[in-house]
Each structure stands twice: as structure tokens, then as C-alpha cells.
UniProtKB/TrEMBL annotation:
Residues 96-139 are annotated as: Disordered. It comes from Parnassius mnemosyne (clouded apollo). It is found in: Nucleus. Its main location: nucleus. This is F-box-like/WD repeat-containing protein TBL1XR1. One of its GO terms (cellular component) is histone deacetylase complex. Keywords: Nucleus, Repeat, Ubl conjugation pathway, WD repeat.
């Protein structure tokens, strides 16, 4: 067996992407010259590096457990990955295993049907690598009565790589998704049980040698305009694109020098805002596809952007800074500093009064244009906070009689709900077992969907913090989103699938 360093680098690059470390993946890709390799990423399945490592671990365990005569006995304790690459530990485990086998063969040892202490062993389910654990249903901590049945889930297959993002059309049941296979797709999820959901494939191509060829770059962001007749996408190839609902490419927006990490339409639908690895943010004229203004205030890649009004916005960066900018103004109208690590996401509240930010420094901060220091510095998560969302409630929303709350999702496997007015955590949602990458409120604010790399989508009551519904898919969840009527939840996954949960009559 042989492999090249390019192949190893590519698998590491894909692992970083699939694990959500997009900025690290970009840096590693540049330094290892991934773009210059001839590897077709669309042909490499998700979790390829983990699969290879798992097979290597199984092989090492087999070396320990299979004797010269070909007989096999089980390990009493599985090897960890670090154990498997440490020669002294492997040798020690092999010696101990041989001694155990010899003891079993000796008369009076109790034989293979008994445990070490002579008690009869209970029935077990063998796991990969020879480990044995008592048989138990998956999600044993989740009440079976709240699990969403398969009949209420529609799995949408078509993408050839992990699906990083999905978003519902605000007017109809069209679901858009963006993937590492260099395509976005529009799925028609209108209620028509007699047909399979129709999909439109939006191929992201670049000019090369006078011809259009697939970019082979991830589609990292997408957003519908307010009317739902146009979809904007952002890609690692450095271009933003505007598409119609029938899949026609309307405009290609080229000004960034490197991957685009985020893009958003303003409420009026005349401008698009984008953030890129080139440290800049750009306001685009949606009608002409031209750059209206480029803002170069960050000293490191810009990670997220969010409109405050139709002409002002906030941006955040790995430089730990947040800037608030306005169209036709040549410097920030406000800058916030206080985070001690990269700022992953920012979101204005529904009225555009308060700005929330989350960071790898494990904190969540609330800012106001009326002061320079943060209004609240919320410390409760034990690991990095990946994303945040405001509830569609409180003054100025369609649910004015409900309190405004903020949700935060963390790599510590929890989601927290915050009363921002008091600056306190009101609920900690703890059923996930892996990092949580996405949260989304239902349109009425009564429920919160969360998606984690434990492959689960959980739906919670925002009033009680209780788990209402749960569904386990087949891949780690990157994104969850609600349709405009609050009847369906879409989710995108690391195994290339998109799925839709129909919550009616549950």
C-alpha cells in the first residue's frame, strides 16, 4: 500500500472542513497547496480520514487478539487512537492479552463462558474493534415517545459531499442547500405526496482555458431575498452568485480575493453583503451585480456579517474585533473590542438595537451603539461558542407579547437560552452529545431546533426548556432551519444528505 503526501493533506483538509473548522481548513489548504493537486474531492466520501483511522485501529487490535494459530479472543478494553500509535503500549497490551489467553486455557480458570471472577457473563453486543458493551437502544436518554418517526422525515439525496448549509424560501416551501460538491440545490418540498421532491442543481463553475469548468470549491453560504424570487450563494472560489428560483444564474459577483465565509441580503432586497478571507466586507448592488463599496477595516479574515438597517451592518473577524459600518461612510461608525479569541458570529436583535457576538473565547457578549463596552459579558459555556440566534419575539416582531431571548450553541454539546434584559441563562439544553453547530427558532418563537454532530436534530420548548421532538439522521448536522409557516424543519448533514421533518400532527 502506498500514498502520497498530497492525499494525506487532502484528507486532513476535508476532516477540518467536516468538523466545522473552516478557517483552519482554508489556511491548511493554502499552505499545503491543496488547490494544485489533481484530487477530485467530489469522489471522496465524507469522513474518509476517520474511516481510514478506524480501520487502522481495527487492524492493530487484530494484531493483538489473533494468535499464531489463527484463533481470536476479545480485548477486555478497546485501544484508544493514541494507544494504537504508541509501540510500548501496544507491546504491553499484547503481552497482557497473551497471558490472559494462557490463563483461560488452564484448568479451573472458568473457561471462556465465565468472567474473570468466575461469574457468568451477560449477553453483549460486539462493537467494532472487539469491544463489548451491553445491548442498548440508541438515544437511550431520549424518551422514545418524542422520537419523530421515519414516515415524517423526507431524506433528500443528490449531493456528492457534505452539505454545510440550508435555508427555506420565505414565501414557498423551496429548500436551498449548499455543499462541498461545488453545487447548491433547490428542493421543491411543496405538499405533493404522489411525487418525489424535485431538485434543481446550481453548478458553481469558473472560467478556465476559455471554458466553464466546475470550481471544485465548497458552497459555504446562501441566503434568499425577502421576496423569495432570488437566491444568493457564496463559495470558496471567491465568487458570490445570484440565482432565480428556476435555477438560472442571474449574476456572478467577483471582487473578493479568496473564499467567501458569509453573505446576507438586506431587508429591502437591493443590496447583498459578503465577508471574505481577504479581510474585507463588500456591499453589492443586487440589480447590477457590481461592488457598491468594499470595507477593509479588519486585519484578519472576516467571518460573519449582519445587517442592522438597509444600509448599515456589523462584521466580525478572527482579529477579535467587531466593526459597525454604513454605506458611503469610509470608516466604521462604531467598533467593539473585548473578545480574546476569534469572533465566530454576530447577530442584531429584531429591532437592531442590541448586537450579540460569540467567540472561541467561550463567551457571549451583548453590545449597544450607545456605549463602547459590552452591556453583558455572558460566561457559562465550557468550550467555543459556534453560533447564536435571536428569537423572533418581543417589541417590533409578530410575537410582541413574548419575551426576547437569545440562543447560543457550543462545542461543549449544549445549547443555552438567555434572558438578555437580565443577562442570565434561563435554560440549558443538554441532550446533545457532540458539538452543536446550528440553532433556529420557529416563526412563533415557541420552539427551538438544534443540530449537532451527534447526528441528532432536537426540538425544544423555549418556555420550559423541555425536549419536545427528536430525530436521529445518518450524518453530523451542520444546519437546521424552519419553513415560514413553522410546520417543517430542514437540516443538512456531513454525509451529503438533506432531510426535512414534517412536524404536523406529531
Amino acid at each position: 500500500m502506498s500514498f502520497s503526501i498530497d492525499e494525506v493533506n487532502f484528507l486532513v483538509y476535508r476532516y477540518l472542513q467536516e468538523s466545522g473548522f473552516h478557517h483552519s481548513a482554508y489556511t491548511f489548504g493554502i499552505e499545503s497547496h491543496i488547490s494544485q493537486s489533481n484530487i477530485n474531492g467530489a469522489l471522496v466520501p465524507p469522513a474518509a480520514l476517520l474511516n481510514i483511522l478506524q480501520k487502522g485501529l481495527l487492524y492493530t487490535e487484530a494484531e493483538i487478539t489473533i494468535g499464531e494459530d489463527g484463533t481470536e479472543t476479545r480485548l477486555t478494553e478497546s485501544l484508544s487512537l493514541i494507544d494504537a500509535v504508541t509501540p510500548d503500549i501496544v507491546a504491553a497490551r499484547q503481552n497482557a492479552h497473551n497471558a490472559q489467553k494462557q490463563a483461560i486455557k488452564e484448568p479451573g480458570s472458568g473457561g471462556e463462558q465465565n468472567g474473570v471472577d468466575g461469574t457468568t457473563c451477560s449477553a453483549t453486543a460486539a462493537q467494532p474493534g472487539g469491544a463489548a458493551t451491553p445491548s442498548a437502544p440508541e438515544n437511550m436518554d431520549v424518551d422514545q415517545s418524542i422520537e419523530i418517526p421515519a414516515s415524517k422525515a423526507t431524506v433528500l439525496s443528490g449531493h456528492e459531499s457534505e452539505v454545510f448549509i440550508c435555508a427555506w424560501n420565505p414565501s414557498t416551501d423551496l429548500l436551498a442547500s449548499g455543499s462541498g460538491d461545488s453545487t447548491a440545490r433547490i428542493w421543491d418540498m411543496s405538499d405533493n405526496p404522489a411525487t418525489t421532491p424535485n431538485q434543481l442543481v446550481l453548478r458553481h463553475c469558473i472560467q478556465k482555458g476559455g471554458a466553464e469548468v466546475p470550481s471544485n470549491k465548497d458552497v459555504t453560504s446562501l441566503d434568499w431575498n425577502c421576496d423569495g424570487n432570488l437566491l444568493a450563494t457564496g463559495s470558496y472560489d471567491g465568487y458570490a452568485r445570484i440565482w432565480t428560483t428556476d435555477g438560472t444564474l442571474a449574476s456572478t459577483l467577483g471582487q473578493h480575493k479568496g473564499p467567501i465565509f458569509a453573505l446576507k441580503w438586506n431587508k429591502r432586497g437591493n443590496y447583498i453583503l459578503s465577508a471574505g478571507v481577504d479581510k474585507t466586507t463588500i456591499i453589492w448592488d443586487a440589480a447590477s451585480g457590481q461592488c457598491t463599496q468594499q470595507f477593509s477595516f479588519h486585519s484578519a479574515p472576516a467571518l460573519d456579517v449582519d445587517w442592522q438597517t438597509n444600509t448599515s451592518f456589523a462584521s466580525c473577524s478572527t482579529d477579535q474585533c467587531i466593526h459597525v459600518c454604513r454605506l458611503h461612510v469610509d470608516k466604521p461608525i462604531k467598533s467593539f473590542q473585548g473578545h480574546t479569541n476569534e469572533v465566530n458570529a454576530i447577530k442584531w436583535d429584531p429591532q437592531g438595537q442590541l448586537l450579540a457576538s460569540c467567540s472561541d473565547d467561550k463567551t457571549l457578549k451583548i453590545w449597544s451603539m450607545k456605549q463602547d463596552t459590552c452591556v453583558h459579558d455572558l460566561e457559562a459555556h465550557s468550550k467555543e461558542i459556534y453560533t447564536i440566534k435571536w428569537s423572533p419575539t418581543g417589541p417590533g416582531t409578530q410575537n410582541p407579547n413574548m419575551n426576547l431571548i437569545l440562543a447560543s450553541a457550543s462545542f461543549d454539546s449544549t445549547v443555552r437560552l438567555w434572558d438578555v434584559e437580565r443577562g442570565v441563562c434561563i435554560h440549558t439544553l443538554t441532550k446533545h452529545t457532540e458539538p452543536v453547530y446550528s440553532v433556529a427558532f420557529s416563526p412563533d418563537g415557541k420552539f427551538l431546533a438544534s443540530g449537532s454532530f451527534d447526528k441528532c436534530v432536537h426540538i425544544w420548548s423555549t418556555q420550559t426548556g423541555g425536549l419536545v421532538h427528536s430525530y436521529k439522521g445518518t450524518g453530523g448536522i451542520f444546519e437546521v432551519c424552519w419553513n415560514s409557516r413553522g410546520t417543517k424543519v430542514g437540516a443538512s448533514a456531513s454525509d451529503g444528505n438533506v432531510f426535512v421533518l414534517d412536524l404536523r400532527k406529531l
